[in-house]
Amino acid sequence: MDSDLAESVSALQAIFEKRKIPAVFGHNDEATVKRLKGPLKLTPRYQAFLVAADPLDVETVTPSERIHFVPAKGLVAEQPAPEGDGERAAPPGWKKSWVVIAHSALLGDPYFLDTSRPDAEGDCPVMTAMSGTDALRPILCASSFASFVRILATAMEVAADFAAGNFDEEDDAIFREAMSPKVKVIDAAAMRAGHWT
Fold first, then answer.
1. DSSP tag of 97
2. How many CB atoms neighbour CB 93 within 10 A?
3. Which residues partner with 161 through β-bridges?
């Protein structure tokens, strides 16, 4: 992993440990991850993440969201199928360049890489969209996967000041207000998009 991603992952792992919330990260060999690139469009930075810190059982916990990462072995099965049915059916407007990497444990909304917009670091934006609607309206969560991980680590840090598991609407509003200046420092475009605030 490059230093930006390594620092973000390290911060996320540290806050899980500090808050005593179980999280299991694993490792993959590069050949295993490269095999995923056949059916999926994975960016180099995300591939490096799967090699060094595969999220085997990782779910962030904050007053406004619980984000459950998809481990490498579940990535192919997690993708909507253009011609699938039921839960596997791709919603109208779903693009082949989107790769689901996590989902909301509260609402089921997908978090996905937009691989049609690569950057110079071998990364791409992370988006989300409300599930169960007639039209997909993607919203930016982070300008890069590294920023996404950093925002989640920061959210977990801010959430440490709230009573665990007893979140209410007032907690959500206070949490989002506390997150706003922190997200702005990490990723100004994500702040303007408004998903975290």
1. T
2. 13
3. none
pLDDT, tens digit, 9 for 90 and up, residues 82-92: 765 566 677 77
CA distance 18 to 101: 24
Q: How do residues 46-63 score in pLDDT, each as one tens digit? A: 999 999 999 999 999 998
Domains of the chain in start order, with CATH, are 3-193 (3.40.1580.10)
Asked if residue 145 lies in contact with residue 113, where contact means CB atoms within 8 angstroms, the answer is: yes
Beta-strand relationship, 54-57 and 67-69: unpaired
For the chain, count helices (H), then strands (E).
7, 7
Q: What is the maximal distance between C-alpha atoms in the chain?
A: 47
Element at 114 (helix H, strand E): strand 110-114
Is the pTM for the entire model greater than 0.90?
yes
